[in-house]
Model the fold of this input.
Amino acid sequence: MTANRKEGRSDGVTKVSPGKLGVRHLQVLLLFFAMVIGYFLRVGISVAVVAMSNSTTANPEIEDYGWTSSQRSSILSSFFWGYTIIQIPSGYFISIWSTQKVLCLGMFICGVFSILTHVAAHYGGIIAVYVCRVGMGLSQGCLLPSIHSLLSKWVPPLERARLGTFTYAGAQFGTVLALPFSGLLAASSIGWPSIFYIFGAFAVCWSIIFLFLGSDTPSTHSTISIEEKMYIKSSLESTHTDNKEKLRTPWKEIFTSTPMWALIIAHCGQNWGYWTLLTEMPTYLNSVLGFDIEKNGGISALPYLAMWILSFPVSWLSDYALKKNVSRSITRKLANTLAYWGPAAALIVLGFVPIDNPLWTVIILIVAVGLNAGSLCGYQLNHIDLSPNHAGTMMSITNCLASVTAIIAPIICGEIITDLSNTHLWSIVFYISAGVYFVSNLIFLIWGKAEIQWWNDLKSDKQNNIIHRVV
Done:
């Protein structure tokens, strides 16, 4: 057995840490693949909808439906209709039942809806496609709350930026794979229907694997070593309460918390900019820059490849800063500023770049999305900073409200961009996203915090209220 090593902590407490990979890393790897597959299921439609609207952009032998720009935008946003509705209920479900089983069930159902999409489109038209996408949103609504809850129970604080970022970087890695793979599938002999069949099958397989290899907590895992279990427990004991029967969800305290509202606004700002680019980029590259669907998917993936690559140095630097006793609040806000104001500046510049220079347009898009990697160490981990015991519930709340922006953003894009080849209209969309990025991060800088809130552990609610009033 590998010898243990002492690891210094910024809070002055010395803990013993196993110097090897463990079951917690397996859990993080499985959650990483959950994010990868989750984004396969979300992102594939961005490419598929182009071919489903006009088959000449991909394989002309496969049927299409002639959808308008407005209809395409509504299809792209329909996933979030169900996704938004289920966020807070899913946070409640994981607080009263097994988080692992909720996540397995949700991903399984999401995969089934994906598999049914082609048949639904063929026989039921656009309404049936809406039903499938809403169903996928409903079933995948548990993804982020479940992952947040599991990370808060499995990952020690000093590993949080690295392992948490690795997990959530699955979104970018999934996007990087999904966009070009979807383009290739759409242009292949089997056409766009294969996107939904293959990605759906991945989700079904993952849910079965996680059912056997995953676990709610280290204490309930069947193969974890005593050494690793004690390391995780000792690392989390000052911030996390394992006995849920002694806790109640502090709904009033959460909704009246200023740092929580700063976090909500930051999450909403991220969703606006991120999903505007993710859902509309394939259309922009096709309609404005003239890339065919095979090139479209590959080029659309480049910005998310940059984001995925940058997530690793950013997460390492965040953990390093914490080890050097830089405050968690400063670390989170610096990362978030990089993630928001960098893309905001890039999007403003993008509005001035002539379309006869597609290389510069692609480079600016890569910068705009790539710098967003800082968000993984910024607002995204802030839920666990504020309340490890209620991180899953808090994520369900912020993600619910932020998902509303993910619904609105593509619809507004569809209403503004009445002519898909009009660069002036696209510039308006980019400027709006830049403004949302700037304002939401400014609010996070002013009112956001990264300290554990007094309502994290309501076992000592009366005492915490007294302390809170004194402070």
